[in-house]
Amino acid sequence: MKLFYSVIIILFTIGVNLLPLKSLGATTSADLAKLNTAPLVYPPGQKLYDRYPWSATYYYGITGHDALGSLFVGGFHRWPEHIQSLELSRTLDEQNFLRRLVSPLVGVVQLAGNVTLRTGSKENTIYEFDPYLAFRWANLPWNKYVNTSLAIGEGLSYVTSVPAIERGYSNDTKRLLNYLMLEATFAPPSYPRLQFVARIHHRSGAYGLYHAGNSGSNDVGVGIRYLFD
User: First-to-last CA distance in the chain?
Assistant: First the structure.
């Protein structure tokens, strides 16, 4: 009988000691469940591009035969050509020399490049390659309503054949010209990694810098971008 009581006391003691551990385990599981269901909070403004420095973009554009300045006042007349582009970009590190040089005037600096397919009724299919630097402003006051960024890009543009619209402007055309990109992006604050893109895609001789006369082309396009790390 003494042995029986001794066993009961031992089992009772073990059970009492295990109760806190069991409760702790249940609490931990509940906490983990809450963490798994909690909404992800994305960093604001330019910090978003530091957290997700890579991006992939697809955009579609239509070519116009108006000057670049005319596009800003609604002057657009379509040329029978359209473009499709795939682009990859990488945000430079905060400690990068160039990014530090232009800060705080520009918050985000990116190295980008796109491959563009030009298709028109007056020419064969043309492949275009555009490596460039993008300077992006992302700390905008209305981001809590619509996550927005504005960017300008500057680089080079090489085509496998000179587009017909550029040949129409000048007899002294070149495959290698200056590339200029103007862009605005929009995304819901709840998921700013997926962005709607509106862009002007511009090739030109840059006022004689490329010895290409007054040749060039403008495309107005829209697309989609995804940020990742």
Answer: 69
Distance, CA of 111 to CA of 75 (rounded, Å): 31
Per residue in 3-25, pLDDT tens? Answer: 444 434 444 444 444 434 333 34
Which residues touch 106 (CB under 8 Å, ≥6 apart)?
Answer: 135, 136, 137
* Residue 213: Cβ within 10 Å count: 15
Which residues have a Cβ under 8 Å from the Cβ of 181 and sit 6 or more positions away?
A: 130, 132, 134, 151, 152, 153, 154, 155, 199, 200, 201, 202
Class of the CATH domain delimited by 47-228: mainly beta
pLDDT of 121-161, one tens digit each? 878 999 999 999 999 999 999 999 999 999 999 999 999 99
- Per domain, the residue ranges of the chain are 1-38, 47-228
CB 205 within 8 A of CB 178: yes
The SS3 call for residue 222 is strand
| Beta bridge partners of residue 228, listed in sequence order | 54
Q: Which of helix, strand or coil describes residue 23?
A: helix
Residue 220 CA to residue 35 CA, distance in Å, equals 43
What is the token pair recorded at 33?
């469940």
Element at 26 (helix H, strand E): helix 2-37
Half-sphere exposure of 6 (CA within 13 A, CB side): 3
